[in-house]
Amino acid sequence: MNLPNKITIARICMIPLFMVFLLVEVPLGEVSLFDVTISNSILVATAIFIVAAATDWLDGYYARKLNLITSFGKFLDPLADKLLVAAALIGLVELQLVPAWITIVIISREFAVTGIRLVAAAEGDVIAASNLGKWKTLTQMVAIIATLLHNIPFSALSLPFADIMLYIAAFLTIWSGIDYFLKNKHVILKSM
To answer: Its function (predicted)?
Structure first.
């Protein structure tokens, strides 16, 4: 297994640890920043999420730099992103920090796109992530980080940055999903 794929697998392995610090009340105390009190457990979860999200860039960088792009990596990398984002959004719904409908829209799109990828794989094709899909993932991750941090530092400015990013992420999720299906409708038609 090459280095980029190992990094991608490491991202997947970070998800359970992230979820523990997000959802289990780990007695680490709390801190006040910009007039917002946040538990240190959430801060640890946020740090884990940021490291996991950064590995998305890192595995792609090494795959391109070292010419280690594989079909396995093309499939696993976006799947790792989906797992990380879905876990975070479900956890944030549990904490009542994200509306359930946005999580349902995002996860539904991800299941649908993964389904198309599986159909393509069965036909011997591998569909890599598009630039629009990469922007979608970036906005989702920024929205999740801002939400995890309870909108710090924007809360001091009364700017709902986390909410704005969440709605942008939902919009890009829908748009990229439509774009994905239109560009790959031949895969669906060929499999029928």
So the answer is: This protein catalyzes the committed step to the synthesis of the acidic phospholipids.
